[in-house]
Design a protein that fits this description.
Rossmann fold, binds flavin-adenine dinucleotide, protoporphyrinogen ix oxidase, domain 3, single chain, isomerase, globular, seven-stranded mixed β-sheet, five-stranded parallel β-sheet, FAD, 395 residues, binds uridine-5'-diphosphate, alpha/beta
């Protein structure tokens, strides 16, 4: 094996660590991925009939307030000035999302000022006044009151997570802002946009250094190649970005993950829904949302004869499904602590990324974590300052 560092998984975590190690330290890096392409879940390709860029593993919107991450990603791609806005359909009426003064006034058929709306929501959230909600249900009600929670959050969340919201961590809902203005931007971050030439062009630029070798269709847990677990662990430092429970052969039990199924349809019309993402808040629709990809790139000259949509369905992941979102129930949190202890005992192994640390990371968080791992673990190890400490991030 001709590599100083082996990276399992070519998602943004693996690519960032590989790029830094090859570029800044001049290391020879081997990246393996069991899929037939790089980029992990951020991968996209042009749909064959229409040429419209489709995000294969679910729509990906880049946003960050981390200046270091923003500077870093701009080395590989320029970003468009796309600003994400989402709408949601409830009782056959379309409302702006996240919940803002427009949503509130439309819902209550009113013309409340910001102060009036705040007072109303405070009153409606009164049942939980003075508490510090730890689960999604209570947090949701305390943020927006019961009527809005039941209309826009309760059933959507049930469809998305198939877990009682009182079992889910409050942090999931804290991702969604509530605003007492008419600002309906989905994200609060300073920077936002989509890669001008698509995700794949961006991701490929990250592995342009000739010191990086990429081996696709190569599973770490299968024998018959030089980068299998049995051949590399203990021989050379490894960064593992696959699911942590799989690495330990599920010794502490399966962690629960959610996966999604995307139903793609090419329609012979120019525009299906007039916007990129429409959420479906009600139980009667089995999908959570519909993405229409042409709207992510209004600056492109796409065909007017057809459009591509994805209906997104959410369900529990079984072994063999793609594990996308950590569900993170109390039982999961006990298991992950045990896995993190096991991880520390492995020789020169770093567990990273969304799957390796069992954390709900957006792309900028995965890149941020990868840059920190490079600074705090990889660089000190290879410059001889410090022996590599195995494990993930333990915060
Ligand atoms: P991944 O991208 O999952 O990459 C892990 C890689 O490891 C995969 O390529 C996998 O094939 C490989 N691998 C796993 N096991 C093995 C093995 N045994 N052998 C070899 N290779 C293996 N973030 C945003 O910022 N904005 C969004 O809008 C957004 N939307 C999302 C929508 C969905 C449906 C999902 C699932 C995620 C979304 N994300 C979004 C999050 C984003 O995808 C992640 O932050 C990012 O992909 C994390 O990268 P990663 O490298 O940690 O993991
Ligand atoms: N959510 C909701 N209704 C919506 C949008 C979001 O209830 O219309 C809740 C839901 O629980 C979801 C969480 O807010 O899991 C975070 O939403 P986000 O859009 O960030 O989810 P993601 O894009 O990561 O699936």
């Amino acid at each position: 094996m001709n590599a100083d560092l082996v990276i399992v998984g070519s998602g943004l975590t693996g690519l960032t660590i590989a790029e830094r190690a090859a570029d800044e330290l001049g290391l020879k890096v081997a990246i393996i991925d069991r899929r037939s392409h790089i980029g992990g879940n951020a991968y996209s390709e042009n749909e064959e009939q229409t040429g419209i860029e489709v995000h294969r593993y679910g729509a990906h919107l880049f946003h960050t307030s981390n200046e270091r991450v923003w500077e870093y990603v701009n080395r590989f791609t320029e970003f468009t000035n796309y600003v994400h806005r989402v709408y949601t359909r409830h009782n056959e009426i379309v409302y702006p999302m996240p919940i803002n003064l427009g949503t509130i006034n439309q819902f209550f058929n009113a013309a409340y000022t910001p102060a009036e709306a705040k007072a109303l929501i405070q009153e409606q959230a009164g049942e939980l006044a003075g508490t510090n909600p730890q689960n999604l249900n209570d947090k949701g009600i305390s943020l927006i009151g019961r009527p809005l929670y039941e209309a826009f959050i309760k059933h959507y969340t049930a469809k998305q997570w198939q877990t009682d919201p009182s079992e889910l961590p409050a942090s999931i809902i804290s991702r969604l802002p509530v605003r007492y203005t008419y600002d309906n931007r989905y994200f609060n971050d300073t920077h936002e946009g989509l890669p001008v030439n698509g995700y794949t062009a961006w991701l490929e630029n990250m592995v342009a250094n000739p010191n990086i070798e990429v081996h696709l269709n190569t599973d770490f847990f299968e024998e018959g190649h030089e980068f299998s677990k049995s051949k590399v662990v203990g021989q050379v430092p490894v960064v593992y970005t696959g699911p942590i429970d799989r690495y330990f052969d599920y010794a502490e039990g399966d962690l629960s993950w959610r996966t999604i199924d995307l139903e793609e349809e090419v329609l012979p019309i120019e525009d299906f829904q007039g916007t990129s993402v429409m959420n479906y808040a009600d139980e009667k629709y089995p999908f959570t949302r519909i993405h229409e990809f042409r709207h992510f790139h209004p600056e492109r000259d796409y065909t007017k004869d057809a459009t591509v949509i994805h209906r997104e369905y959410s369900r529990f992941a079984e072994r063999g499904d793609e594990p996308y979102y950590p569900i993170n129930t109390a039982v999961d949190r006990e298991k992950i602590l045990k896995y993190r202890e096991l991880a520390k005992g492995e020789p020169e192994m770093i567990f990273a990324g969304r799957l390796g640390t069992y954390k709900y990371f957006d792309m900028h968080m995965a890149i941020g974590q990868a840059l920190s791992i490079f600074d705090n673990k990889i660089k000190p190890h290879f410059s001889g300052e410090e022996k590599l400490v195995s494990g993930g991030d333990e915060d």
